[in-house]
Design brief:
This protein is mostly helical and about 250 residues long. It is about 50% helix and about 5% strand. About 25% of the residues are buried.
Length: about 250
């Protein structure tokens, strides 16, 4: 069997060499595809504590640098920019920040979620502009990683999934833009009572108020969204699917 120009090998030998090459390539790929660490909002400030840092696989020094923003790479935090799976020889990582969503060194704080939502929206814009094959080659892996991350956040938040939750999130986001309730209802194709209901529920219970569990009402107050809440609501609102009966 010719394995290279003018060079020959026994068929069994060629199969063994090919198997080693494939196995080696898989090891490299699998070593790079390790999920980023998502840190709950209540745990961020405690990362430097020995027990918390150990659970997250971070040294006290690294955790303190993350808390103070020294390891913020513009999109997420990085455990060690000089131990990147994309570079070798202890060189600083040179890839675009969007690749951080695929890196085992990434550590994501919930305060960084608005950036990830903006990235997800940009990826969707590029989906409409690029041929499918080109989009998949450039953005497919990042889109899948973000979907997985947002699904994990949804599990943390609890509550309904799918169209009904998306509709409630859109209502709150529209109300946060200071649109009149009637205008919000017209814009989203819901009744004014439905818009008022979910606005009030959010004011009273924040994200938990959008679940199907009965919640006590409260007096209508000013609707102000935190960055974390806006990021989560935006993600829910972006969910596609058939619309369910009005809540």
């Amino acid at each position: 069997m010719e394995v290279f120009r003018t060079h020959y090998a026994h068929g069994t030998t060629a199969h063994v060499l090919a198997g080693r090459a494939v196995t080696g390539a898989q090891a490299i790929v699998f070593g790079q595809i390790t999920r980023p660490l998502l840190v709950p909002s209540g745990a961020e400030e405690h990362l430097a504590e020995p027990s918390m840092g150990q659970a997250a696989g971070l040294s006290e020094h690294t955790a303190r640098e993350m808390i103070t923003g020294q390891l913020d790479m513009g999109l997420v935090n990085c455990r060690d920019p000089y131990a990147s799976p994309y570079t070798s020889g202890g060189k600083a990582c040179h890839v675009a920040p969007a690749m951080c969503t695929l890196c085992r060194n990434a550590v994501i704080f919930t305060s960084q979620l608005p950036r990830l939502v903006l990235l997800a929206e940009h990826i969707e814009v590029m989906r409409r502009r690029l041929p499918p094959a080109s989009w998949q080659a450039v953005w497919g892996r990042q889109a899948a990683a973000l979907d997985e991350l947002f699904e994990e956040l949804s599990r943390w938040a609890g509550g309904p999934q799918g169209p009904r939750l998306a509709e409630r999130a859109r209502i709150v986001l529209a109300c946060a833009e200071e649109l009149p309730t009637v205008r919000v209802a017209e814009k989203l194709g819901v009744t004014a009572d439905t818009a008022r209901k979910w606005r009030s529920r959010f004011v009273a219970r924040r994200l938990e108020g959008l679940t199907d569990m009965p919640r006590p009402g409260r007096r209508k107050t000013e609707l102000v969204l935190s960055e974390e809440e806006r990021a989560q609501l935006t993600r829910w609102a972006r969910r596609a699917g058939t619309r369910s009966p009005r809540a």
